[in-house]
Amino acid sequence: MLREAILQALDGGRTAHQLVERIQRRWWAHGYARDLAEGQLTSAVGVAVALVRPSVDCPDPMCEDGVTLHLGDGCPKCDQRRTDRRRGQVPALREKRPAPQWWECEGQGCMASGKGHRPAGGLCWQCQERVEEAAAQTAVQRVSATLAAETEAAEEAARLRQTIRWARMLDEAYTEHAERGGTAQELAEAQRQAEADAEKVRILREQLLREHPELAAYAQGQT
To answer: Which domain does 211 fall in, by range?
Structure first.
């Protein structure tokens, strides 16, 4: 009951500091201090509720026990109310606002609840923080995986480039050897060796292209 009264007072547009001032003022002005000294307080909870709950006597929501908050002067509507009472007229009461509704967090396994406007996602602030943190971690993992894949592709491209360069060097060496006038047997052996090396290069290139088809365009540019 006391918690409801405090939440209602805060929902009515009062700050915590203003609520403290209300409690201190009513404690003395309404005679609760005297009743406590005389041993006449029978319900501590009832007194606490009376100290914090909003006043419903004045229709002006800025009225705080007969004083207009933003002006600091006596409330004219309360003055008029007292005049009407002396004349036997019934004063108007403050319009009662709809009571704030309780809502429960929709997070899995979460037992948190709140009062007032339901969050857009239906989650309390703790569950919302956990969802945002999980999304951030997923994004970091996705970026890390992308960088790792790009690094691996770059390494494979470097291997293919080195293989092609090595094949060119072998071709140039065999050509130079043939131009120097070696024997027919040496030329035949060199030719067989060149063909064997060329076959190894071809097999390695096909293997790399099967594993990394994205290097096909690069390999064609190197042939």
So the answer is: 146-222
